[in-house]
Structures are given as C-alpha cells and as structure tokens.
Amino acid sequence: MKLVISVHHRFELWNPPAWLGERLRQDFPALEVVHLPDYEGLDRELPDTEILVGWSLKPEQIQAAKKLRWIHSPAAAVHQLMIPEVVASDVQVTNATSVHGPVVAEHAIALVLALAKRLDAAARYQQKCEWAQGQMWNAQPRPREVAGATLGLFGMGAIGREVARLALALGMKVLAVREHPEKSSEDPIPRSPDVQVFGPGDNDRVLSESDFVVLCAPVTPRTRHLINAARLARMKPEACLINVGRGALVDDAALLAALRERRLGAAALDVFTEEPLPPESPYWRADNVFITPHTAAVTDKLWERHYELIAENLRRYLAGQTLLGLVNKHKGY
Asked: What is the pTM (predicted TM-score) of this model?
C-alpha cells in the first residue's frame, strides 16, 4: 500500500517536515511512504498511489490515479479538491478541521478582543509615539466590553464550536448559523441558554442583532459572498466583522465601501480573496481594518497535531473503520 505526501507552499510552516514521512514509515512498516519535496514527481507516483496527503489535484491526475482511495487534506477548507472528477469518484476525502479548530478559534477570539479594546488603533498610535487616550475614546467604535455582547457566528464546525465555547466563557451571547440547525442536538456544541442556533434563513436576523460577527463557514455556492452589500446593511453601524474562514465569504468591494463610509465599526481579516494581499489593496490603508496575514492556524504544534490525526485515520483505514474528518463531497465540507 502506497501513501504519497505531496504538499508544497511558499510559507515554510505549511510544508510537511521531513520527520512526518519518516515517522509514518516507522509506525506503519507495511506502508510505502513517498514524501515529495515539490509537485514535479507527483504524476509519476500517482498511478499506484492508494492514499494521498495533499490539498489539490488536477482532473487528469485523478483519472491517472487508478488505485487512489483516500485523499487527506492538511487544510480545513477542501473546496480546491471539490472538482467533478473527485466528487463523482469513490475516493474518500478527509480534512484537518479538528487540527486547526482550537488554534483558529483562539485567533478569532483574540481578534474580537483586539477590536473591542481597540488594540489596532493603539498600535497605530504607538508607531507615531502618540498618547491617544482621548482620540481612542472619541473614535467610533469606542473601546467596550465583550461581556454581555452578542457574537454572531457563521459556521459550527470544529472552529465554530470552539469559538462559541470561548465566547461563552467571556460572558458573551452566541447566535450561531449552520446549514442544518436541527442537527445541533446531535453535535457537541456548547449547551447554554446563551447559545441559539439558526438556519441560513435567519442570516439577516443574526447579523442585525450581533455586536461581533465571526465567519468560519466553509466555502460553498451558498456561502460565497455571504457578506455582501445587502447583508452589511443589516449590521449595526458599530458592529465588527471578523473573518477567519476564507476570503471568498466576503464581497470585498461591499465591505470596503461599508468601512470607508463608516457604516460598519471595524473589521479584522485573516483571510483574503487574493493571497498574499497585494500592496495596492485598499485594505492596507483602511484605518478601521486589522489585518493578520493568514496566521490564525499558525502554531509550533501544527505538524504534531497533523501527525496524530493522520496516524489515527491510517489505523482506522487499515481496519476498515470510518475515518475522522470525512468530507461530504456533494456538500463540499
């Protein structure tokens, strides 16, 4: 049985370390493990590959991979893999949402706190050596408390559930939107009178009642540009938007207009439609935008966490058991 690791990215941390393949060979001696440093040798390896660790494939590569039975993506989002050839095949797809969930949730809550306490503005004034106590108080939105505030949460997967748990610990009320709210009784979501779960039909209601809105939904045809001009118009003028999901969830032109015209309090964005965010992007110059460069999932424990999930799923795969993080290919998550 052959497993190929084929992940290559300009950011060093996203690339699997050499020890990953070595440890898999040691712990699963019956497995042939091929760890490719780039994508050049992938076409040569695919015809007899049964398991692939990677986040994208071309249609012709799927057709050539006659023995492929399982693709594991080290990302949480798998929309790059949801091409017709994969969806129509019997290849199982798993993702790493459980790896990224707790880390991304911490980052989301950190951004909520940063905007509530206007740490973004404080950092800008620090660069100018300016004691701006009065300016920060008189700006909009003003520094405020998160206890008692309402957090609108779009997406209740591994990230969203942890965001909800942390928000509750801070004394916030959580209004969550998920595609199938009726399944909430079956899932390990936080149980509290301060958590309400809605379906997509209540998007506007949740936006209108929220002080902070956190996006961590998967990208599907239904969620693409979830936040558009009409939805932004529903939000409170002092509300803050946090996106730790994907850039495609937001209509950039509509968000920039709302921020520029002060129809929205502020935004904290970790993900963008185009990455790296180009220098000419208006986001860089907006004084009510806090940017983090897609670092929500960054942690020194990342690949150890990846290994634990991959190894557990390998044990399950070899035993014919259900895999963790299994993706519904027709839904795209």
From this structure: 0.93
